[in-house]
């Protein structure tokens, strides 16, 4: 028996498709156009082919920025995911204090990115910042404008403060979806706290945790505003992540061809790694459904 398929739903998403075409597809086409051309000004362009892509593939500057970016994202995920799960496990599950904790955890997520960078820029200053002044008074040498280690610690702690709440809220949602019957059965079997976490809570949270990891990876890999406001990519190039390096190349040096090729490669790396995460999430859902 043939089923009648209603295609009218496409009209509902047509405005979204048009919006995406103008906000994403057309700018990408412009970037692709710049990546295969060269210009000497006066709006005159010359065909360059894949020259800029070859240049960027052999660019030590880009590989250094990519290494710093991967290290930053890895550190962020290794800190925020376990910390977010720990916070979610220790939050009240119901009542007034549960609502209070949810509101407090949501506050950092509401702060604009440039404001977060400004807060930590002032907070870490040795002369007027509470953190910098306190550490200096304790005899701890801390100056994120001169020390690469201090700069890295500052932007990592800043990102952990800003985004760990997202992981915690998603993990808390996963915990709330676990039926009480699971805990009652574990109590009857006299299961330990670790066994409850290992065999009940963690499997039920795995789906939302994969979403949290995917979101946090994409955000951390594309981060620009916060570290740029705090360190500007310095001292030296120690905190010059991919996005900062790309902006310097495109706007600071006005190398449109290399910057366009750089941005496309940057986009493909994010797309590839996000696809890997999505594939893992899909396979996990299929296994749980069996």
UniProtKB/TrEMBL annotation:
TM region positions: 12-36, 70-89, 101-123, 149-175, 196-218, 259-280
Which keywords label this protein? Membrane, Transmembrane, Transmembrane helix, Transport
Q: Which PANTHER family match?
A: GLUCOSE IMPORT SYSTEM PERMEASE PROTEIN GLCT, TREHALOSE TRANSPORT SYSTEM PERMEASE PROTEIN SUGA
Entries under CDD domains matching the protein: TM_PBP2 (cd06261)
Q: What is the name listed in the Swiss-Prot or TrEMBL entry for this protein?
A: Sugar ABC transporter permease
Give the UniProt family note. Answer: Belongs to the binding-protein-dependent transport system permease family.
Lineage of origin: Bacteria, Pseudomonadati, Pseudomonadota, Alphaproteobacteria, Rhodobacterales
One term under GO cellular component: plasma membrane
Q: Where is each ABC transmembrane type-1 domain found?
A: 66-277
Output one GO BP term. transmembrane transport
What species is this protein from? Meridianimarinicoccus aquatilis
Q: Where in the cell is it found?
A: Cell membrane
Q: Which Gene3D superfamilies does the UniProt record give?
A: MetI-like
């Amino acid at each position: 028996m043939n089923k009648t398929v209603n295609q009218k739903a496409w009209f509902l998403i047509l405005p979204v498709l048009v919006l995406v075409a103008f906000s994403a597809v057309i700018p990408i086409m412009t970037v692709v156009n710049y990546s295969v051309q060269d210009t000497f000004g006066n709006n005159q362009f010359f065909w360059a082919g894949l020259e800029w892509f070859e240049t960027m593939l052999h660019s030590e500057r880009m590989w250094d920025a990519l290494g710093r970016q991967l290290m930053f994202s890895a550190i962020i995920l290794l800190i925020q995911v376990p910390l977010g799960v720990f916070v979610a496990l220790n939050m009240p599950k119901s009542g007034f204090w549960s609502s209070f904790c949810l509101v407090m955890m949501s506050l950092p997520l509401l702060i604009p990115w440039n404001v977060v960078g400004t807060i930590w820029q002032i907070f870490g200053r040795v002369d007027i910042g509470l953190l910098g002044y306190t550490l200096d008074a304790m005899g701890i040498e801390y100056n994120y404008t001169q020390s690469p280690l201090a700069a890295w610690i500052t932007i990592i702690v800043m990102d952990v403060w800003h985004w760990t709440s997202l992981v915690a809220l998603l993990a808390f949602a996963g915990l709330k979806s676990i039926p009480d019957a699971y805990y009652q059965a574990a109590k009857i079997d006299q299961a330990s706290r670790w066994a409850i976490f290992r065999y009940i809570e963690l499997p039920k949270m795995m789906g939302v945790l994969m979403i949290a990891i995917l979101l946090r990876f994409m955000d951390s890999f594309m981060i620009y505003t916060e570290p740029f406001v705090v360190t500007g990519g310095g001292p030296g190039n120690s905190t010059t992540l991919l996005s900062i390096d790309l902006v310097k190349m495109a706007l600071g040096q006005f190398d449109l061809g290399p910057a366009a090729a750089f941005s496309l490669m940057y986009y493909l790396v994010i797309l590839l790694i996000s696809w890997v995460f999505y594939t893992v999430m899909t396979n996990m859902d299929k296994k749980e459904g069996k």
